[in-house]
Amino acid sequence: MTNHMKTIYRSLALLSLLIVAFSCADESLDPLQFEKMKKGIIIALRGDALNKVYVQGNPIEEIFPRIATGTEKFEYEAEILADDPSVVASVDIYVIKRPSLERVFLKNIPASSFTQSSKYLRPAATISITIQEVLTKLGLPTTFPMSTPTINELLTSYKFGVGLESDLNLTDGSKVLAADIVAAGLFQSNQFYPAMILTWAVTDYCTYEDTWAGPFDATESSEFFGGYGPYTTNLTKTSTNNYSTDNFYDSGWPLSLEFTPSTSVATQTVIAKPGTVTIGANVYTYEGSGTYNQCLGTVSINMTVKRNGDTSDVLVWKLTKK
After folding, report:
1. CATH of the domain at 88
2. CB-based contacts of 24: which residues, under 8 Å, 6+ apart?
């Protein structure tokens, strides 16, 4: 027996002991509601999806409404955790409709979809949900590119993601409900991370475009001097993804910006290259880095200004395209 299998066996044994311990306890001391669950029967997240959410701290999948193509899907592996996996007859998956929080039936996964292999100790299945299936159940159009009303609905009502819940139907006619896991965080180890309450993230993201030339409203939020602005600054394209302005600090100071073409929200970054201005006996140097939002046409850069080598200002320089 491998160490991995031993760990799972020991974890299942511990889970069984916890069930027994809670069976005579006050319900208020039963955050996982074991009294309502059938001997700890759950489906647990596995594979790449588990690695994304548990190890990396990232969403399993994301919907980008502004650039959605209709090929998006929410896919994950789930393993039945039970002393006897054959007691699971099927899994009902629901999508949570907002703002009513109504659970709308999405699809049924029969027990036959969960198969035994050398990959996992118990039967597991790959579950796939398409964006068309979800949009239909949410009462939204399934045309792509998405219309402005559909984009706005997803980015507002579902800004925290689309909730997906799974109930287990058992062969004796009873159920293990997603709602019974009222403190799912206590399950969240690499063995027991539940696949019964999941979220399909919705993210406001636009494909990068090298179109930052033009006038901007600029504001400053200084750690030393407070807020300032707005005032106008113009960006002029100098080369691919590179722009210059002649009015940083509302003082006519030149500044060069380099945008990184993004592949995700996290990679929407911009660098303010080092600049130098001499005024009388004082030499000012300044540079910074920050982020941009292609959808909104905004830039936010953390800048540091030094005078004769000493820090004279630390500020956030924000640009909003006019």
Report:
1. 2.60.40.1940
2. none
**Residue 207 domain-assigned?**
no
Residues 111, 167 share a domain: yes
- CA–CA distance, 34 with 39 (Å, rounded to integer): 7
Structural domain range at position 24: 3-202
pTM for the whole structure = 0.72
Contacts of 281 (CB under 8 A, 6+ apart): none
Q: 88: Cβ–Cβ under 8 A, 6 or more apart, which residues?
A: 41, 43, 80, 82, 111, 114, 168, 169, 170, 171
184 shares its domain with 306: no
3-class secondary-structure state, position 105: strand
149 and 237 in a single domain? The answer is no
CATH number at residue 317: 2.40.128.120
What residues contact 250, with CB distance under 8 A and at least 6 apart? 218, 220, 228, 229, 231, 233
Per-residue pLDDT of the chain (322 residues; tens, 9 = 90+): 444 443 444 444 444 434 443 334 344 444 444 444 455 799 999 999 999 988 788 899 999 999 999 999 999 999 999 999 999 999 999 999 999 999 999 999 999 999 999 999 999 999 999 999 999 999 999 999 999 999 999 999 999 999 999 999 999 999 999 998 754 444 445 678 899 999 999 999 999 999 999 999 999 999 999 999 999 999 999 999 999 999 999 999 999 999 999 988 889 999 999 999 999 999 999 999 999 999 999 999 999 999 999 999 999 999 999 9
Q: How many domains does the chain have?
A: 2
